[in-house]
Write a structure and sequence with these properties.
Distance between the termini: 13 Å
Bound molecules: NADP nicotinamide-adenine-dinucleotide phosphate, zinc ion
Radius of gyration: 20 Å
Largest sheet: 7 strands, mixed
Helix content: 10-25%
Mean pLDDT: 97
CATH superfamily of the largest domain: Medium-chain alcohol dehydrogenases, catalytic domain
Shape: globular
Strand content: 25-35%
Low-confidence stretches: none
Number of domains: 2
Number of strands: 17
CATH architecture of the largest domain: Alpha-Beta Complex
Structural class: alpha/beta
Length: 347
């Protein structure tokens, strides 16, 4: 039996839960989970804001732990090493996207989420990282450097890769002006990674109190988006905006911050669809794009980059029993800048 914390139903508080992980197959790695980050997607899904949630749900897709068993065919991992698991644990492996190392865009089965999904073949629900142990195919398991603090590495497995993937896809670097909308889990990693890639970074925040933190994270500028004057000053300014906002907002006014040919990349997934008028785009040939987490190979690339550049998440370590309070604080934008569950608190 593996101890876990689960949401029994939408809107119900999380509670202790026990589950059985499969015995490691020939290609599997078993990981004793040490830390699991708390993503806003956990909250959206626990509250069934996107629809179709599977209960009971054990959330958690920012997992770092230590390998405790490997199958006979496993070649990349040894018992005792650190390992990570992000947002997916499987996909079809044969479609063009899977072949391209972009398993998150799997075209046949879709990617199998680390939780709130069903295993290919068995149809069993997947359970995430708010638990003591997980068993994952080595192809979907990440190598984690022991040079970094594992608690602070955990959020890289979603917040890190979700901001890294578009920065790399759009080749963001020196000479680019990047706006990061929303300074939460994704946002603070977006700032660190865009700065490390050489871009000029501006945080676009609704929280005036986050300015000093934004600068400490490496941001060059800070704009309070509720202040019309400050917003006007960056009209037509950005090459790229990473939009990490989790709540509905007036997208049109933010599109005006893009210069000609600028691109807003949607990362946040508010339950409601945004309103956009063609005029917000056509006058300056602006683009709206979206990006979903990242593939396994680029996740490894990001983890290796972070190990090399000493980049980690800024975290608040919590016990699993405090998860509902953490969700409430997250809803208020009061996260500095990622909650991480100390899985030892499962007892
Ligand atoms: P988070 O830590 O809660 O951060 C979201 C930030 O958005 C807040 O800190 C706040 O920043 C800002 N915000 C919140 N409410 C707002 C409002 N009403 N108006 C304007 N700004 C608001 O969440 P997260 O974990 O970073 O996740 C952000 C979103 O990305 C979620 O919707 C999540 O589901 C989604 N996500 C998507 C992917 C993907 O693959 N695309 C992956 C992971 C997560 P300020 O205080 O600075 O305004
Ligand atoms: Zn996530
Ligand atoms: Zn596929």
């Amino acid at each position: 039996m593996t101890k876990a914390y689960a949401a029994p139903a939408a809107h119900a508080p999380l509670a202790p839960f026990e589950l059985t992980r499969r015995a490691p197959g020939p290609h599997d790695v078993r990981i004793e989970i040490m830390y699991c980050g708390v993503c806003h997607s956990d909250l959206h899904q626990v509250r069934d804001e996107w629809g179709g949630s599977i209960f009971p749900m054990v959330p958690g897709h920012e997992i770092v732990g230590r390998v405790s068993a490997v199958g006979a065919e496993v070649s990349q991992f040894r018992v005792g090493e650190l390992a990570g698991v992000g947002c997916m644990v499987d996909s079809c492996r044969t479609c063009p996207s899977c072949q391209d190392g972009l398993e998150q865009y799997c075209e046949t089965t879709g990617f199998v989420g680390t939780y709130n999904a069903r295993e290919i073949g068995t149809g069993q629900p997947t359970y995430g990282g708010y638990s003591q142990q997980i068993v994952v195919d080595e192809k979907y398991t990440l190598r984690v450097s022991d040079k970094l603090d594992p608690a602070r590495v955990a959020p890289l497995l979603c917040a890190g890769i979700t901001t890294w993937s578009p920065l790399r896809e759009w080749k963001v670097g020196a000479g680019h002006r990047v706006g990061v909308m929303g300074l939460g889990g994704l946002g603070h990693m977006g700032v660190k990674l865009a700065v490390a890639l050489g871009a000029e970074v501006t945080v676009l925040s609704t929280s005036p109190g986050k300015e000093a933190d934004a600068k400490a994270l490496g941001a060059h500028k800070f704009v309070v988006t509720k202040d019309a004057e400050q917003l006007k000053a960056v009209n037509g300014y950005f090459d790229f905006i990473l939009n990490t906002v989790s709540a509905p907002l007036d997208l049109a006014s933010y599109l005006n911050l893009l210069r000609r040919d600028g691109t807003m990349i949607l990362l946040g997934v508010p339950p409601e669809a945004p309103q956009v008028h063609a005029f917000n785009l056509i006058g300056r040939r602006r683009r709206i794009a979206g990006s979903l987490i990242g593939g396994i190979a680029e996740t490894q690339e990001m983890l290796d980059f972070c190990a090399e550049h000493n980049i980690m998440s800024d975290i608040e370590l919590i016990n699993v029993q405090d998860i509902d309070a953490a969700y409430e604080r997250m809803l208020k934008g009061d996260v500095k800048y990622r909650f991480v569950i100390d899985v030892a608190s499962l007892g």
